[in-house]
């Protein structure tokens, strides 16, 4: 349960967590296996038993603030997720386009070197065809043919890569259009959540806490009692009492929880 005001429980709480920025006013209620956080104080009928897990009771703390903050941030992340997924896909497509283009550049350089070498060998063949032995001319012709095949294969690869690049660029454009379509609504919702976030913080800043826990009945061993700056785990069963966080002058003003019988 998350509450900005006070919380009242009439009978009993089992396996629950309550966060409130007001006061938990339930003097006739026992809690079992539960955690309660009341910024302006907690009043209960008792806590725990001999068989279940210990309870946590906190007064004067900002746990409600932290929980609401966590929920708002989670909502912002969930709201932004579709946009983040599309942006990630867009970046992936851009990466593929860059790598494809780089391969095309490397193939073009390879093609140009092969073309230059082929032209050089062809010129040598034409100039020496009347003076070179036939076997040497045959070797030059074989090399010319080999470079021509390399050039043809390179051109084929360039065409294939260019076709792939165009497909990826088209897919990237589709993703960009989707981003443009959904961005305004998502950004508007995120701005609203951020406004809620800062408004809640400002409201919480002006709300004073009260580190006072009032227990009308028994509190079983293991129960954790907390204030903003200190905690106490009960080792024995406590009867009706009040637990309050105070500064301990003997320990340089450090805070501690004091237990006073009612």
Order of helices and strands: EEEEEEEHHEEEEE
How much of the polypeptide forms β-strand, as a percent range? 15-25%
Mean pLDDT, nearest integer? 91
Q: Can you tell me the overall shape?
A: rod-shaped
The tally of helices reads 2
Distance between the termini: 29 Å
DSSP E strands, number: 12
Give the strand order of the largest sheet, numbering strands 1, 2, ... along the chain: 1-3-5-7-9-10
Query: Could you list the spans in which at least 5 consecutive residues all have pLDDT below 50?
Result: none
Compute the CA-based radius of gyration.
38 Å
SS class: alpha/beta
- Percent of residues in helices comes to 40-55%
Largest β sheet strand count, sense and barrel closure: 6 strands, mixed
Keywords for this entry:
rod-shaped; 53% helix; six-stranded mixed beta sheet; alpha/beta; 262 residues; 12 strands
Task: Produce a short descriptive summary.
The protein contains two helices and twelve strands. By secondary structure, it is α/β, with parallel strands linked by helices.
Overview of the structural elements:
A 6-stranded mixed sheet has the order 1-3-5-7-9-10, with helices on one face. The radius of gyration is 38 Å and the shape is rod-shaped. The chain is α/β, with parallel strands linked by helices. 53% of the residues lie in helices and 22% in strands. Helix 1 runs antiparallel to helix 2. The chain has helices at residues 63-128, 134-205; strands spanning 2-3, 12-14, 17-20, 24-32, 35-38, 42-47, 56-59, 212-215, 224-226, 231-233, 241-248, 254-261.
């Amino acid at each position: 349960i998350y509450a900005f005001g006070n919380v009242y429980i009439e009978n009993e709480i089992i396996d629950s967590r309550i966060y409130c920025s007001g006061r938990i006013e339930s003097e006739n209620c026992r809690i079992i296996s539960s955690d309660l956080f009341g910024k302006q104080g907690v009043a209960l009928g008792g806590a725990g038993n001999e068989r279940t897990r210990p309870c946590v009771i906190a007064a004067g703390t900002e746990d409600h603030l932290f929980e609401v903050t966590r929920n708002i941030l989670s909502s912002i992340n969930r709201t932004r997720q579709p946009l983040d997924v599309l942006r990630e896909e867009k970046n992936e497509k851009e990466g593929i386009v860059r790598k494809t283009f780089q391969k095309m550049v490397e193939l073009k350089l390879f093609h140009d070197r092969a073309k230059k070498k082929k032209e050089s060998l062809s010129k040598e063949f034409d100039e020496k065809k009347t003076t070179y032995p036939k076997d040497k001319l045959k070797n030059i012709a074989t090399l010319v043919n080999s470079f021509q095949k390399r050039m043809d294969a390179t051109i084929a690869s360039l065409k294939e890569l260019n076709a792939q690049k165009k497909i990826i660029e088209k897919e990237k454009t589709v993703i960009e259009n989707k981003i443009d379509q959904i961005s305004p609504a998502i950004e508007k919702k995120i701005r609203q959540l951020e406004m809620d976030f800062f408004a809640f913080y400002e409201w919480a800043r002006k709300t004073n806490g009260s580190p006072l826990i009032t227990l009308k009945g028994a509190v079983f061993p293991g129960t954790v009692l907390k204030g903003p700056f200190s905690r106490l785990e009960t080792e024995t069963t406590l009867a009706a009492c009040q637990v309050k966080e105070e500064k301990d002058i003997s320990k340089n003003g450090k805070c501690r929880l004091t237990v006073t019988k009612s």
